[in-house]
Every structure is written in structure tokens, then in C-alpha cells.
């Protein structure tokens, strides 16, 4: 319903808007913003539905331009809005009798007014504000009678195509209490301020959107606000009288936006100006001391925005004013890395708390230059904006000198990341606006714990977030502090890599991220190590016999010794009867056939007729080495045990004579004490049929037997 209402209203505004012309340039008049707050009308206050009312306001501006008289309102209202109607002729003294005496504001904007009867407002004792704009048939001649209303404080006569103010307009006015006069949009070209002198209590004058190119200033001690935006002034207005006293000794705010002013020349006498705005002008250079303290001793808020031309130079100390607290130096396209932007331009600005440099270029500004630029205000600056300055990175040092920042604006840049902790100690910051950059992720270390607990207002939207495990921490932070995040749950925090998904809504199987990235690399490292050992094991298994052989060689080589005695046999083989086949089929062919050793085998070499005990004793003592073929049969054979014991005692004299061959695995419980004893001191060589293992067996055996041969040949 409300939306419909507003839509219809704007239709009316378009329909009823008045076109004025200044020098044949058409100007469309729109109702300027309300000078007082209006709550939206809700309650109907007139039977025919021509007005909508709230407690204090009767808004009859919505009646489609059909209202030709002032309706009878059933209650008293302070604000009466009759704009956009057809009240063309305020023809008689009783025109407003239907309006209560309580009315303070009457808006008659855009009614095609042609005539206002004398004394029509006399009954309205509380009338303070009258808005008569947009009715281009009124003229300056109608103003004096209005000023006769003793209660009138505000008068708006905007968009009436009034033209230059005639010299005698206010001449007859004697007791005006007018505080505010709006003459905007009136095609004034040349103005002599002297005409306003009779308005002795005037504080604010708006001359916005005229064509003023010629301005004669005059002594205006009551003026506090002078609005001259959107005119054609070439020069900064003269503010000093002949004697260098101020023409505007009480002026607090001066707006000269959108003129063609190129500089501020001496002398300037504006002792109380707090707010100065010279945006959209034609300053080519900002020269040293342009805004210095003796020109503007009370200047606090300075606005220099969007010059209409390229700026050729910003000199050192161009402001040089310690009173200035707020500087808005935006959209001037100044490349701060270039020499024409002097690093000391803000010299003397020791009291700045707010600095907005949006819409300039900081891309190539070095840390040194940045520090020098902000040096004067290092101990005062609270609010800094470097938004839209094409910043591509923040160095870890960039903000290191700032210690009092409460609000930082870096939106609309090309930052790809925020180095960990760079924003942690730049002051008691609670507001951080970083939207519309190229930041891909925010991690736990980007902002310190202490900073995070301080932040009350954060905008990190409009960045191309890479939604993966790394983003989950950020998501958690957002979820647990939804109130500090601007545009939380809007499309502002979108995932660049997942279509139509925002960071708060991004879902990822938590299992996938249980191991953080550190853990993941650890896993990879462990896997590599395991793989390495696995390969090593496989290789070892493949060549395990070679390896054993090598090991054996190494061990045995330490025990080599020389021997001198010559023997009848090289080897005495002690074996059980049951293992004879192995001895004859395997051992004998290799040792005697291939290696050319002489073996003593009791079947063949024991002399018949001789005592078996003697045979053994002779054979052992005539053999250089003894090979004991261990097997379960060996353990059970009496003769074998005898041979073993004999050898053992024999070995006491000749060390390192015995070579053990394990033909089959023999359980230790099956072994005799002698066998166990010899096993404890002597390494044995296992027999294995398999190819590799067999090769290794012969190799090791050869080595064991060679140990005594080698020194002879050496
Ligand atoms: C009167 O109503 C018009 C249109 O609704 C609005 O633009 C204007 O600001 C109002 N006037 C005042 C004094 O509030
Ligand atoms: C004024 O008239 C409207 C419509 O007839 C009615 O709703 C409202 O209550 C009246 N207000 C007073 C104060 O009588
Ligand atoms: C309107 O007036 C009524 C009664 O006087 C009061 O209770 C209510 O708060 C007022 N509403 C507004 C918006 O001032
Ligand atoms: C005036 O009111 C009539 C009906 O009362 C309506 O048809 C007409 O459209 C209104 N005029 C405008 C300009 O809307
Ligand atoms: C006062 O209102 C009534 C009805 O609303 C209307 O008929 C009358 O013409 C109005 N009086 C004036 C002087 O406009
Ligand atoms: C305004 O009212 C007059 C009669 O008082 C009428 O002739 C004229 O057409 C009306 N204008 C509009 C725009 O409704
Ligand atoms: C306005 O009304 C008065 C009285 O009815 C009349 O004398 C005067 O000519 C009218 N003015 C215009 C411009 O219509
Ligand atoms: C008069 O105008 C001044 C300046 O625009 C404004 O602050 C004030 O509220 C206005 N007073 C009334 C009663 O409209
Ligand atoms: C402005 O008007 C005053 C008084 O009428 C006059 O003395 C002065 O010379 C005028 N100034 C200019 C520049 O015309
Ligand atoms: C006014 O001040 C300017 C510079 O600020 C100076 O050049 C000029 O001589 C002064 N004039 C008088 C009358 O003191
Ligand atoms: C800055 O202004 C002070 C006086 O406020 C002055 O002494 C100083 O010379 C000025 N600096 C420059 C560089 O002009
Ligand atoms: C993304 O969301 C918008 C609005 O919800 C929808 O119109 C659009 O079709 C969606 N696109 C895809 C690819 O899902």
C-alpha cells in the first residue's frame, strides 16, 4: 500500500514539476528535501481522503493535484503539506481558516501560485516556515509582505525563476525575523549581497544552483551559513573589508562546491569558518598554505572532492592548519606515488582525526612516502579511508606507525590478501571495511585474537572467496558473530569457486577437513617415509640372500687369522647316517668337484679295521675344518654327538674350525646340550633348496671354508 502511495506520488511530482529557464537552459524543479523530519502519514484526517496524517503532520500533497482549497482538518496539525496541488490563487484573507492556529510549517511548493493576498497568514501565529517554491509566477515583489509575518523564520522561494535580486527588494523591510532564506534555482547571475542587509537576523542563505558569476560581498555579521554551490564563480569570494576585517565575522560554514574557482588568494578573513567545501572546482594546483591557520583559524572540516580537471601539483604544507580535524580529499585522481604529490602535503595538519583519500591512486606509493604523508597526523588520526585507491597489497610495515585508528576503510581495492597481523596494532580499531577486494580467504591468523574481540563492524563482502577447507574457520567466525558482519547472509560473501553459494552457506563434509593442511602435509610425509621403507623391504627381500652373504662376509672378515699347519684333509664332514644322501648328492659334488677340496667322509675315508673312535680322532685332527651337518638326525645320532663333543674339545686348541650347516630346522628341545652350546658361539649356515637361497648357501659356505685358505694364498 505504502509503495503504491509513493509510486503515485512520484508520478504526480513528475506530472507537476515546473520547468524554469535560465538563459534558455531548461531547469526542472524538484521539491527539495524536507527541512524537518516527516514520519510517513498513516491516519486519514479528512473525510474525502485528500490528506494523510500522523500526530503532527497533515500531508495533503498526495491528492493528485486536485486540491483547489485548504481542506477542513478535524484536528490541529503542526505541519501542513499542500505541495503538488492546484492552489493557484491565495485570493483572500480567510484562505487558511480551515487550518488550526498551531500550524508551524506550510508547504505550498509546486502549486502554480500566482497571487498571495495581503495578510493571509496573519491568523497563523505560530507559522515559522513557508515553502513557496516551484510556482514560477511569483516574484520578488511578493516577498516583503511575507516577511511581515512576525513569526516567520524560514522562507523557501526556490525554483521560481526569479532572476537577479533587485536592489530595492528588501528595502522596506524593517523588522524581519527571518533566519533562513532559500533562493536556490532562481537564475540569479549577478548578486550584490548588500540587498540582504535589511534581513538583520538572517543566519543561513542558500543560493544553491543559480548562475552567479558576479558576486559583490558585503558586511554580513549575522550570517552563519552561506551556500553557494553550483554557480559560476571564478574567484573565491572576497571576505575581507578594506581594513582586513572580516565581512563575515560569524560565518561558520561556507560551501562553494561546483564552481570554477582555481585557487584561494590573499587576503582571506574567515575567522570562524569551521566547515569549508570547495569540491568540484577547478584547482589546478594546491599551493603551499592555501588553507593555512591565519586564513582559517577555526577550520575543522575540509572537503576537497573531485576536481573538474586534472590536478598538476599538490605542494608541501598546502593545508598547514593544525585546527583541521576532518579532511575529505577524495576522487581527485592524484597518483600519490608521483612527485607532483609532495610527501609533505599534509605538513602542519597535526590535529587530523579523519582522513578520506578515496578515489586517488596509492598503488605504487612506497612505505616511506606513505609514512611521510601521514606523519603529521600519526598521533591523532582515528579514521582513515584508502578505498578505491587501486591498492594491490598491504606491506607489513604500511600501517605500522599508526597507533590510534578506530575505523579503517579499504573497500574497492585490489587487495588479494591481508598479511597476518598487520592490522592488529594500528589502534583501538572497531570498524573495518574491506569489501570489494580480491581477497580469497581469511584465516585464523589474519586478525589477532585481541583485534577480533574489539571489532564491532566488519565488512568483508564482495570478495571472491575460495571456498574450501581453509574458509571454514572464517565461516565459523562469521556464524559465531553474525552481528558484527555487515551483509551477513547476503550474496556479498559469495564463493567464487562454487556457483550461487555464499560463505555462510557453504557446506563441506567435515571429515574432509578434520586434518588441517598442516596435518595433511604431515600425513603425506609419513606416507612417503612408509613407502620408502616398504620399497626398501621389497628390495631387501628380493636380495635377502645376497645381503646375508655380505653381512656374513663382513662379520667373518674380522676374525681371519693365519694358520701354518698343513692337513691331510681340508674338511671333515660330521653328519648323521640319514643325511648321507644330501652329503653325497649336494655337498660332495660342490666341495670336491667344483672347489677342489679334499673331504673326509666316514663312509668313504674311515679306514676299515681301525677303531671307529680312532678314525674319528685321526680324521678330525687331519682336517683343517669340520663341517657339522645339523639336523634332527644329528641330534639323535650317538656317533654324531661324539664327533661334536670331540670337535668341541679339539676346538679349544684350534679356534674357529667348526662350520655349522643346518640341514633342517631342529627344535631346540630336540637338541643336545653340546649342540646348543656350539650354536651359541658359532653362526650356522642354513640349507635351502630354492635357487637364490641355495646360491647364498654355497657362497657363505665357501667363505667360511676359505677363511683358512686365503692367508696361505695371500
Ligand atoms: C510535502 O510533500 C512532498 C511530497 O510528498 C515532499 O516531497 C515534501 O518534502 C513535503 N514537504 C515538507 C515540508 O515536508
Ligand atoms: C479525523 O477524521 C478521520 C477520518 O474521518 C478519523 O479517522 C479520525 O479519527 C479523526 N481524528 C480526530 C482527532 O477526530
Ligand atoms: C501520537 O499521539 C498519541 C497520543 O497523543 C501518542 O500516544 C503517540 O505516541 C503519538 N505518536 C507519535 C508517533 O508521536
Ligand atoms: C482529480 O480527481 C479526479 C477525480 O476526482 C481524477 O479523475 C483525476 O485524475 C484527478 N486529477 C489528477 C491530476 O490526477
Ligand atoms: C474549509 O473546508 C470545507 C470542507 O472541507 C470547504 O468546503 C471550505 O471551502 C473550506 N474553506 C476554505 C476557506 O477553504
Ligand atoms: C487547477 O484549477 C483550475 C480551476 O481552479 C483549473 O482550471 C485547472 O485546470 C486546474 N489545473 C490542474 C492541473 O488541475
Ligand atoms: C485571485 O483571486 C482574486 C480574488 O478572487 C482576484 O481578484 C485575482 O484577480 C485573482 N488572481 C489571479 C492571478 O487569478
Ligand atoms: C528552518 O530552517 C532551518 C534550516 O534549514 C531548519 O533547521 C529548521 O528546522 C527550520 N525550521 C522550521 C520550523 O521548519
Ligand atoms: C552593492 O550595493 C551597495 C549598496 O547598494 C553599493 O554601495 C555597492 O557599490 C554595490 N557593489 C557593487 C560591486 O555593485
Ligand atoms: C591585508 O592583508 C594582506 C595579506 O594578508 C596584506 O597584503 C594587506 O596589506 C593587508 N591590508 C591592510 C589594509 O592591512
Ligand atoms: C605553516 O604555518 C605556520 C604558521 O601557522 C608557518 O609558520 C609556517 O611557515 C608554515 N609552513 C610553511 C611550509 O609555509
Ligand atoms: C543463482 O541464483 C539466482 C537467484 O537466486 C538464480 O536466478 C540463478 O538461476 C542461480 N544460478 C544458478 C546457476 O543456480
From TrEMBL:
Keywords for this protein: Glycoprotein, Immunity, Innate immunity, Leucine-rich repeat, Membrane, Receptor, Repeat, Signal, Transmembrane, Transmembrane helix
Signal peptide: 1-20
SMART domains for this protein: LRR_TYP, TIR
Subcellular location per the Swiss-Prot or TrEMBL entry: Membrane
Record-annotated membrane-spanning stretches: 519-541
Listed GO CC annotations: plasma membrane
Similarity comment: Belongs to the Toll-like receptor family.
Identification of the protein by name: TIR domain-containing protein
Species of origin: Littorina saxatilis
Amino acid at each position: 500500500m505504502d509503495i503504491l502511495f509513493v509510486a503515485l506520488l512520484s508520478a504526480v511530482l513528475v506530472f507537476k514539476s515546473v520547468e524554469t529557464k535560465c538563459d534558455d537552459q531548461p531547469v526542472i524543479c524538484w521539491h527539495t528535501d524536507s527541512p524537518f523530519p516527516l514520519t510517513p502519514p498513516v491516519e486519514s484526517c479528512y473525510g474525502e481522503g485528500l490528506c494523510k496524517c500522523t500526530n503532527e503532520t497533515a500531508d495533503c500533497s498526495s491528492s493528485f493535484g486536485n486540491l483547489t482549497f485548504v481542506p477542513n482538518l478535524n484536528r490541529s496539525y503542526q505541519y501542513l503539506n499542500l505541495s503538488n496541488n492546484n492552489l493557484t490563487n491565495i485570493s483572500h484573507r480567510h484562505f487558511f481558516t480551515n487550518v488550526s492556529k498551531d500550524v508551524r510549517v506550510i508547504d505550498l511548493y509546486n502549486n502554480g501560485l500566482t497571487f498571495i493576498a495581503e495578510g493571509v497568514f496573519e491568523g497563523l501565529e505560530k507559522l515559522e516556515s513557508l515553502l513557496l517554491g516551484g510556482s514560477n509566477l511569483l516574484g520578488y515583489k511578493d516577498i516583503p509582505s511575507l516577511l511581515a509575518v512576525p513569526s516567520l523564520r524560514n522562507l523557501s522561494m526556490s525554483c521560481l525563476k526569479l532572476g537577479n535580486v533587485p536592489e530595492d527588494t528588501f528595502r522596506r523591510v524593517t523588522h524581519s525575523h527571518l533566519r533562513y532564506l532559500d533562493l536556490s534555482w532562481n537564475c540569479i547571475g549577478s548578486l550584490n549581497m548588500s540587498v540582504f542587509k535589511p534581513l538583520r537576523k538572517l543566519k543561513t542563505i542558500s543560493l544553491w544552483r543559480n548562475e552567479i558569476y558576479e558576486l559583490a560581498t558585503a558586511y554580513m555579521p549575522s550570517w552563519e551559513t552561506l551556500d553557494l554551490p553550483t554557480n559560476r564563480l571564478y574567484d573565491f569570494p572576497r571576505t575581507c573589508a578594506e581594513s582586513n576585517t572580516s565581512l563575515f565575522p560569524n560565518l561558520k560554514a561556507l560551501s562553494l562546491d561546483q564552481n570554477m574557482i582555481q585557487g584561494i588568494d590573499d587576503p582571506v578573513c574567515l575567522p570562524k569558518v569551521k566547515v569549508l567545501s570547495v569540491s568540484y572546482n577547478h584547482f589546478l594546483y594546491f599551493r603551499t598554505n592555501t588553507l593555512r591557520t591565519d586564513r582559517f583559524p577555526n577550520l575543522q572540516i575540509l572537503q576537497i572532492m573531485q576536481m573538474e580537471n586534472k590536478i598538476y601539483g599538490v605542494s608541501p604544507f598546502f593545508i598547514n592548519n593544525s585546527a583541521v580535524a576532518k579532511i575529505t580529499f577524495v576522487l581527485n585522481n592524484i597518483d600519490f606515488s608521483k612527485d607532483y604529490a609532495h610527501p609533505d602535503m599534509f605538513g602542519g595538519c597535526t590535529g587530523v582525526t579523519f582522513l578520506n583519500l578515496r578515489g586517488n591512486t596509492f598503488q605504487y606509493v612506497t612505505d616511506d612516502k606513505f609514512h611521510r604523508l601521514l606523519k603529521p597526523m600519526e598521533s591523532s588520526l582515528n579514521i582513515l579511508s584508502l578505498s578505491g585507491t587501486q591498492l594491490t597489497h598491504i606491506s607489513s610495515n604500511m600501517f605500522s606507525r599508526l597507533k590510534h585508528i578506530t575505523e579503517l576503510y579499504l573497500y574497492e581495492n585490489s587487495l588479494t590478501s591481508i598479511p597476518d597481523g598487520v592490522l592488529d596494532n594500528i589502534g583501538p580499531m572497531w570498524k573495518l571495511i574491506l569489501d570489494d577486494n580480491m581477497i580469497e580467504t581469511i584465516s585464523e591468523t589474519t586478525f589477532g585474537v585481541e583485534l577480533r574481540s574489539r571489532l564491532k563492524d566488519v565488512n568483508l563482502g564482495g570478495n571472491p572467496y575460495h571456498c574450501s577447507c581453509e574458509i571454514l574457520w572464517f565461516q565459523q567466525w562469521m556464524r559465531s558473530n553474525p552481528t558484527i558482519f555487515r551483509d551477513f547472509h547476503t550474496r556479498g560473501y559469495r564463493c567464487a569457486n562454487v556457483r550461487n553459494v555464499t560463505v555462510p552457506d557453504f557446506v563441506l563434509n567435515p571429515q574432509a577437513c578434520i586434518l588441517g593442511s598442516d596435518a595433511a602435509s604431515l600425513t603425506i610425509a609419513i606416507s612417503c617415509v612408509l613407502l620408502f621403507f616398504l620399497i626398501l623391504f621389497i628390495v631387501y627381500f628380493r636380495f635377502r640372500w645376497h645381503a646375508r652373504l655380505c653381512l656374513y662376509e663382513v662379520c667373518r672378515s674380522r676374525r681371519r687369522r693365519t694358520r701354518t699347519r698343513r692337513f691331510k684333509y681340508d674338511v671333515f664332514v660330521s653328519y648323521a647316517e640319514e643325511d648321507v644322501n644330501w652329503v653325497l648328492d649336494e655337498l660332495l659334488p660342490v666341495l670336491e668337484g667344483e672347489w677342489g677340496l679334499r673331504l673326509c667322509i666316514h663312509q668313504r675315508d674311515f679306514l676299515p679295521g681301525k677303531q671307529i673312535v680312532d678314525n674319528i680322532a685321526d680324521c678330525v685332527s687331519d682336517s683343517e675344518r669340520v663341517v657339522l651337518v645339523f639336523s634332527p638326525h644329528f641330534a639323535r645320532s650317538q656317533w654324531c654327538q661324539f664327533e661334536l663333543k670331540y670337535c668341541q674339545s679339539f676346538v679349544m686348541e684350534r679356534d674357529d674350525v667348526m662350520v655349522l650347516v643346518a640341514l633342517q630346522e631342529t627344535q631346540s628341545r630336540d637338541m643336545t646340550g653340546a649342540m646348543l652350546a656350539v650354536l651359541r658361539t658359532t653362526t650356522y649356515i642354513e640349507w635351502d633348496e630354492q635357487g637364490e637361497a641355495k646360491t647364498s648357501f654355497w657362497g657363505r659356505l665357501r667363505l667360511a671354508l676359505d677363511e683358512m685358505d686365503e692367508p696361505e694364498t695371500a
